[in-house]
Design brief:
About 30% of the residues lie in helices and about 25% in strands. The chain is α/β, with parallel strands linked by helices. The chain has four domains: about 70 residues, Alpha-Beta Plaits (2-Layer Sandwich), CATH 3.30.70.100; about 200 residues, FAD/NAD(P)-binding domain (3-Layer(bba) Sandwich); about 120 residues, FAD/NAD(P)-binding domain; about 120 residues, Enolase-like, domain 1 (2-Layer Sandwich). The strands form seven sheets. A five-stranded parallel beta sheet has the order 7-6-5-11-21, with helices on one face. The protein is globular, with a radius of gyration of 28 Å.
């Protein structure tokens, strides 16, 4: 309507619905304000319809008197809705005619893309999500959900064959692998519908388009024959399995972490190339299903990015289950015939081996899906692996394009993808005010026993110049492990010898992933191992192992009674 303005304010300091009401009432009292609305305190904003001559500083002062901080994000003519005083505050911010089709375009429909789109929708933005491939991306379709389902299923099966307790007898019956895979597929379909397709329906300001996106100047995104414009773009295209350029490998064909999860029949023998998280997890799944598995790792140890003690401990338990592990093993050539695969391998000492197996799984990492995005058109820089370079705000080398998740040069964890997607969208719409928070990032390898870690390894701490003190507590000293009749693993803590500050935690234990976050919180708070050792932990729990490990810096825990603090 002529003579009226729509003003959007960013509000800082709101923490509840009451805050939203206080801000709304304060704004309504400003002369010239016709309507004021806070669309939920979480949005961090207020929408105002006011006369053209309203004093914007009076708006800011009114918010300040209510106890909050405000700044003007945008102003534009209020839409004409048919008569005096009948202007209605929009739920989405209208784009100027001919300038943009959406407020934000998100390229990618996985964890990072959904996090970005949802955060933008919470800000009232009109969002276009363009996705190439199954909705939901890697995690729900071919990654976290299906793999962890099979991991837990085979853990259940494996334990049935153990005899931990006298007087309790269980036995492994027949394993119907095809039925297990069908149940896994049903779970994936259920979660894809509930957590992605149904979620889209809850956000009417998000428009979904299936297709391959390509960047154009503007910025703009081309999808098929259509071109869509927006002031900002978030790239969240994920990653794909990568295989090294081993002669004969591409011609022979192989399983990836994606296709291995869809096998309806188990092979008799299997070689797994790659001894990091994915390779280790799937190697154990198939070994527990009765497959003879050989794990081939190029580097000197499995789990090569973990603490060396962790690598040794995990290798010991996997080998005890019958998995053959070859480290410092270079695959020189791969051949395939009707009988299966022949891998020509050179070991560290120069010894040549030929490994014959029925199936081959390549789990040597993932590469970002950035090759067909048209990054060059906007001068967007990448690293040598194709990962999009981003700064602390998740912004690329182009000021209007952000990147999140596995397509960026960020740690490839689904929780990092979701976090970075949220940060990217928020900064794209509100200005660069929120930084990526990846300090003390926890990580888990879902083998059995699990590996969980955060902070620095002992070697990294020494390289960083710390006077390092490290202690390792075997699980035989943790009462819960004794009652569970499962002593596999340890808790290792790395500390600064001068201050006692906790620098790193490394756990090998059943359920280690459920314990590590306590150590993360301790490191974020700057606690010392002495602080950790004096905290109260519930008894009997495996998390008590953190307390006992911390106490080893000052005392001999073998000389304590069960609950001694």
């Amino acid at each position: 309507m002529a003579g009226e303005r729509h003003i959007t304010l960013q509000i800082r300091g709101m923490t509840c619905d009451g805050c939203a009401r206080h801000v709304t009432e304060a704004l309504k009292k400003v002369p010239g304000v016709l309507q004021a609305h806070v669309p939920g305190w979480q949005s961090g904003r207020a929408e105002v319809i006011a006369r053209e001559d309203v004093d914007e500083q009076a708006l800011l002062d009114a918010v300040a008197r209510a106890g909050y901080q405000a700044q003007v994000l945008r102003r534009e003519p209020a839409p004409d809705n048919g008569g005096p005083s009948r202007t209605v505050l929009p739920q989405t911010r209208p784009a100027p005619e001919g300038e943009a089709d959406f407020d934000l375009i998100v390229v990618g429909g996985g964890s990072a893309g959904f996090a970005a789109a949802i955060r933008a929708a919470e800000e009232g933005a009109r969002v276009l999500m363009v996705n190439h491939g199954p909705i939901g991306g890697t995690c729900v379709n071919i990654g976290c959900v299906p793999s962890k389902f099979l991991i837990r299923a085979m853990e259940h099966y494996h334990r049935a064959g153990e005899a931990r307790y006298a007087g309790v007898h269980t036995a492994q019956a027949a394993l119907h692998w095809h039925r297990l895979v069908a149940q896994k597929d049903a779970l994936v379909a259920e979660l894809r519908q509930a957590k992605y397709q149904d979620v889209l329906a809850a956000y009417p300001t998000i428009t979904y388009r299936q297709g391959q996106a390509r960047l154009r100047e503007g910025p703009a995104v081309e999808v098929g024959s259509e071109v869509y414009r927006a002031p900002k773009v978030v790239l969240a295209t994920g990653a794909r399995p990568w295989a090294p350029p081993i002669p004969g490998l591409a011609e022979a064909g192989y399983l990836t972490s994606t296709t291995a999860l869809d096998l309806r029949a188990l092979p008799r023998t299997l070689a797994v190339l790659g001894g990091n998280a994915v390779g280790l997890e799937l190697a154990q799944v198939f070994a527990r299903a009765g497959v003879a598995v050989t794990l081939v790792e190029l580097l000197p140890r499995i789990a090569p990015f973990e603490d060396e003690d962790v690598s040794r401990e995990l290798a010991r338990h996997l080998e005890a289950e019958g998995i053959r592990i070859l480290t410092q093993a270079r695959t020189e050539r791969v051949e395939r015939d009707a009988r299966g695969y022949r891998l020509h391998i050179t070991l560290a000492e120069g010894e040549a081996q030929v490994l014959e197996v029925e199936q081959l799984l390549v789990a040597t990492g993932r590469r970002p899906n950035t090759q067909n995005l048209g990054l060059d058109a906007l001068g967007i820089e990448t690293d040598r692996r194709g990962g999009i370079l981003v700064d602390e705000y998740a912004r690329t080398s182009h000021p209007d394009v952000y990147a999140a998740g596995d397509c960026a040069d960020l740690p490839q964890f689904v929780y990092v993808a979701a976090h970075s997607g949220t940060v990217a969208a928020e900064n794209a719409l509100l200005g660069n005010h929120r930084t990526l928070d990846l300090e003390f990032l926890p990580r888990v390898i879902f083998t059995d026993p699990q590996v969980a870690a955060a902070g620095m390894t002992e070697a990294q701490a020494r390289e960083a110049g710390y006077a390092v003190e490290a202690r390792t507590l075997d699980l035989e000293h943790v009462p819960q492990a004794l009652t569970a009749r499962d002593l596999r693993g340890f808790v290792k803590l790395v500390a600064d010898k001068t201050s006692g500050r906790l620098l790193g935690a490394h756990i090998v234990a059943p359920g280690a992933g459920e314990i590590i976050q306590t150590a993360v919180l301790a490191m974020r708070a700057g606690l010392s191992v002495q602080d950790l050792g004096r905290m109260l932990f519930p008894y009997l729990t495996l998390s008590e192992g953190l307390k006992l490990a911390a106490q080893t810096f000052e005392k001999d825990v073998t000389r304590l009674s069960c609950c001694a603090g």
